[in-house]
Structure of Propionate 3-nitronate monooxygenase:
Amino acid sequence: MLTDLGISLPVLAAPMAGGPTAPNLVAAAGHAGSMGFLAGGYKTPAALAEQIAAVRGDGVPFGVNLFAPNPVPASEEDYRAYRDTLLSEADRYGVHLPDTPVEDDDHWAAKIDLLLADPVPVVSLTFGLPHGDVVAALRAAGSMVVQTVTSAPEARLAEEAGVDALIVQSSAAGGHSGTFTPTRTPPEVPLPRLLRDVRADTRLPLIGAGGISRPADVAAAVGAGAEAVTVGTSLLRTHESGTSAPHKAALVDPDFDATVVTRAFTGRPARALRNRFTDRYEPIAPCAYPAVHHLTSPLRKAASSAGDTGLIHLWAGTGHHDAREEPVADTLARLAGES
Ligand SMILES: Cc1cc2nc3c(=O)[nH]c(=O)nc-3n(C[C@H](O)[C@H](O)[C@H](O)COP(=O)(O)O)c2cc1C
């Protein structure tokens, strides 16, 4: 799969929505012999089209990642209760929280139309598994389709839907879990074991993800059946990353010594640095995505502007302490054991 795309480095740059992944990060990965994925999540189709044009101009292989709809609707009652609890935080920042749940699909159909009209080399999907017709249409348009899975049963479903390859994401991963069942927190299975479980069930190419921060982690994933790995957290502090300054600093701040899987920020399990917000709100946050994402979004934006690391969603995988401030190319080569 990698050689078909002209990729020589078995460490890929994962998509990271919300700021960290910008076209120059994806281009830098491509120029380093790796491949990056634009993060289509949370963007308008027009903004995504602009980013695709920017990377295409660089002439490197690249992918586009989308959130496949897999909503967990909020009950009015749970939403109201969580919103009421967050009002004191909102008052502190003078922001308004949506009165009623916002249940959107992140422009799914329009983004698929965009990718069918203007195909890209690779499309990666997370959060849910789209209908086989969508997979078939993307493949017919000439894209390779890659699905994020978090277990062997999910891998089987993705294979049945006709995808070309799987990203096998362990619970150690930073940011949202790609689980198909967001009402359940994914079990903490080490990546090599998860890869072996999935390998036993499918012949599709596997790309390992989650907690990879050292060359030995890459070797372990490859030894367990992965053709390549993909890293997110390790790139968060790189020069090309658009991660906010407070987030970059917190990743290596000894005061942030633990990560937790939490629904407090978005209503969907995601791994973040443990902070005041996760301690206080994880126990009461409803499982409801995307309503909780939209509920806390104004608060998180205000906290980011103010540098309030007690309230920002500091997405991080378990290997965050190893993230370095350096060019993307250096991180990818180092992890691949080439420097
Ligand atoms: C800040 C951040 C944002 C992320 N956003 C996305 C995303 O938009 N789409 C996606 O498929 N995965 C996303 N992920 C998960 C990564 O694709 C990848 O699975 C994960 O970073 C791998 O684990 P690691 O962070 O330990 O390297 C994100 C991860 C982080 C840290």
Observations:
- The pocket of flavin mononucleotide is lined by residues 14-18, 20, 39, 41, 65, 126, 148, 169, 172-176, 209-212, 231-234, 315, 317, 319 (CB under 6 Å).
- The longest helix spans residues 76-93.
